[in-house]
Design a protein that fits this description.
alpha/beta, 7-stranded mixed sheet, 23 strands, binds 2-aminohexanedioic acid
Length: about 500
C-alpha cells in the first residue's frame, strides 16, 4: 500500500467511475482512460470517461436540485459549506497527498492548496449571511427602490490541472451559498483529485437531510465534455479556468446562447525591480513566483523588468539560487521544484527556449534533470533567459518555468513594457519609493487584475477578487464581491402610495 492508496481509502474514492451525479457514481459512457502520475509516469487507475450524454444527465439532475436549493435560506446553505470545511480539515493531509501524486506539487504547496479550500469555505460561510442588496432613494414619493440577489442556477465549472482542488472549491463554496448547484469538469490529468473533492462534499451533504446530494456532479472527460457544458442552457454560468485557447472557444459557445461566463485564463505576469528595491526580499519573492510549482501557476512570474543599473546584480543573484535549487521528487521534504505535468509541457518549454535564443536571448539552465529524480517523470532546472528586449516569444505564455529578464531605463518605460503583452493577470513592483509604488497601482500603472507591491505575483489570498483583464478573460473568482457573478439581481420598485407618479415626470393622463 502506498500513501496514495491509504489516502484514497480514507476519503472513499471509487476511481473507476468517471461520472458522479450526487452520490450516484457510474462508469462514463466514453472510453476507459488511464490516470498517470507526473512524478514517475506510473498508473494511478483506469477511469471510465464521460460523454456528452453524461453531461446532459448531470445538468438535468443539477437543475432539479436547484429548485430545492434556491428555497433553502442562504445561512442554511452556509451550514453545508461549514460542514464541508470541517470534512476538509479532517482530510487535509489525504487530499494533499492526492495533489502531490496527481499534479506533482511539493508537499508544502499541496497542503497550502487544501488550506486555500478551507479558507474559502470559511469565507463563504460568513458570506451566506451577507448577500447584501442596496437600497436606493426613489425619485418618487412613497416608493421604495431596492435590489435583491437571488440564486442564478446550476454552474458549469471547468478547471485546470495546476490547481486541481482549490479552484473548484472557490467556485463550489461560493456557488453553494449563493444557491447554485454545480457540475464540474476537472482537467483530464487530475481526475482523482476531483473524485476525492466530490466525495468529501458528499460526506457533508449526507449530514443534511434538507439538501439534495445532486447539488454537485462531476464529469471526467475531454474537450467534448467541456464544450457540452458550455452549450447547455440549463447552466446559466460557466466558470472556466485554463488556457486562452480553451477560454476563447468556451466563451464563443456560451455567448451564442447569451449565457454568462467567468473566465480565468492565461497570465504573462511580470515584476519590476526598481533602484530602491530591497533585493534580499525581492529575491525570495521572485524565485518562489518564477520557479515554484515548476512554473505551472497562472500567476507564475514569467517576466522580470529590471532597472539597468541593477540588472547585473539581479541576474547574478537569481542565477546563483537557480543553480542550487533542489529539483526532484515532490514527495521528499527538501524538494522545491517538482516535475512538469507531461511531455508536451517539456517540448513547449524547449521550443520556447530555442525561439528565445533565435531572438537574441541568453539562456541559463532550463535543461532536463536526470540525476536523483524518479524515472519516468520530467524534471527540469528552471530557466533564466536574458533578453535584449521584449521579443515575440516573451509576449507568449509558456506554461513552464522560464523567467525572461529585460532591462529598463525609467519607470514609464518599465510600465510600457509591462503592459505590452496580451495577458493581464498578476503583477508586482519591488520598490521602497512610494511614488513608484503608487504610480504602479494607479490608473496609468499596471493593467492587471492583481497588482502587488513588494510581494511576488503568485500566492494570492482568497479574500481578494482573483482574475485579470485582456486575454486573461475579465472574470473574478474567490473573495471580495466575486459572489455577484453567481447570483441574479432583481431591482424592486414598491409603491406604497395611492397615486401613480411616473418616473422622469412623464404625464400620461387617460381622462
Ligand atoms: C491558478 O494558478 O490557476 O495566487 C490559481 C495563486 C493561487 C491561485 C492560483 N492562490 O497563485
Amino acid at each position: 500500500m502506498t500513501e496514495l492508496d491509504d489516502a484514497l481509502g480514507r476519503i472513499g474514492v471509487d476511481a473507476t467511475h468517471g461520472v458522479w451525479v450526487g452520490a450516484d457514481g457510474a462508469q462514463g459512457s466514453g472510453a476507459v482512460c488511464e490516470a498517470r502520475s507526473p512524478i514517475d509516469g506510473s498508473s494511478l487507475g483506469q477511469i471510465g470517461w464521460a460523454t456528452t450524454s453524461d453531461v446532459a444527465r448531470a445538468a438535468a439532475a443539477n437543475r432539479k436540485a436547484f429548485e430545492v436549493l434556491r428555497r433553502i435560506p442562504a445561512p442554511r446553505r452556509g451550514e453545508l459549506v461549514r460542514r464541508f470545511g470541517q470534512v476538509l480539515r479532517e482530510h487535509h493531509e489525504d487530499l494533499a497527498v492526492l495533489v502531490t501524486w496527481e499534479a506533482g506539487k511539493i508537499r508544502s504547496e499541496a497542503v497550502g492548496e487544501v488550506q486555500e479550500m478551507i479558507d474559502i469555505c470559511d469565507f463563504a460561510v460568513g458570506l451566506s449571511r451577507q448577500l447584501y442588496g442596496k437600497t436606493m432613494t426613489s425619485e418618487r414619493a412613497a416608493h421604495r427602490l431596492t435590489e435583491q440577489w437571488h440564486p442564478l442556477g446550476p454552474v458549469g465549472v471547468i478547471t485546470a490541472f495546476n490547481f486541481p482542488v482549490a479552484v473548484w472549491a472557490w467556485n463550489a463554496a461560493i456557488a453553494l451559498v449563493c444557491g447554485d448547484p454545480l457540475v464540474w469538469k476537472p482537467s483530464e490529468r487530475t481526475p482523482l483529485c476531483a473524485l476525492a473533492c466530490h466525495q468529501l462534499l458528499m460526506r457533508a451533504c449526507e449530514t443534511m437531510d434538507d439538501i439534495p446530494d445532486t447539488v454537485s456532479s462531476v464529469v471526467i472527460g475531454g474537450t467534448d465534455v467541456g464544450q457540452a457544458l458550455a452549450g447547455d442552457r440549463r447552466l446559466p454560468l460557466i466558470s472556466a479556468t485554463g488556457s486562452v485557447r480553451m477560454g476563447r472557444s468556451v466563451a464563443q459557445v456560451v455567448a451564442e446562447r447569451l449565457g454568462r461566463t467567468l473566465l480565468e485564463l492565461g497570465g504573462n505576469n511580470a515584476a519590476i525591480v526598481t533602484p530602491s528595491a530591497d533585493l534580499e526580499l525581492a529575491l525570495r519573492a521572485l524565485v518562489f513566483a518564477a520557479a515554484g510549482t515548476a512554473g505551472q501557476r497562472c500567476t507564475t512570474l514569467r517576466r522580470l523588468i529590471v532597472q539597468r543599473d541593477r540588472y547585473e546584480e539581479v541576474v547574478e543573484a537569481i542565477r546563483a539560487v537557480y543553480a542550487r535549487l533542489s529539483v526532484g521528487d515532490p514527495r521528499l521534504p527538501d524538494t522545491l521544484v517538482g516535475p512538469l505535468i507531461d511531455k508536451p509541457a517539456f517540448s513547449a518549454m524547449q521550443a520556447a527556449l530555442d525561439r528565445a535564443r533565435a531572438q537574441g536571448g541568453t539562456v541559463h539552465f532550463g535543461e532536463r534533470v536526470r540525476q536523483d529524480v524518479p524515472e519516468g517523470g520530467i524534471y527540469v532546472r528552471p530557466a533564466l533567459v536574458e533578453m535584449p528586449s521584449q521579443t515575440a516569444i516573451v509576449m507568449e505564455e509558456t506554461f513552464a518555468p522560464i523567467l525572461y529578464v529585460i532591462p529598463y531605463d525609467d519607470l514609464q518605460d518599465a510600465i510600457r513594457i509591462h503592459n505590452e503583452v496580451p495577458q493581464g493577470l498578476s503583477s508586482s513592483i519591488f520598490t521602497n519609493d512610494m511614488r513608484e509604488a503608487e504610480t504602479f497601482c494607479g490608473p496609468q500603472g499596471s493593467d492587471c487584475g492583481i497588482v502587488n507591491v513588494n510581494v511576488g505575483t503568485s500566492g494570492a489570498e482568497i479574500g481578494g477578487a482573483f482574475g485579470g483583464e485582456k486575454d486573461t478573460g475579465g472574470g473574478r473568482e474567490s473573495g471580495s464581491d466575486a459572489w455577484k457573478a453567481y447570483m441574479r439581481r432583481a431591482t424592486h420598485t414598491v409603491n406604497y402610495s395611492d397615486e401613480l407618479p411616473l418616473a422622469q415626470g412623464v404625464e400620461f393622463d387617460m381622462e
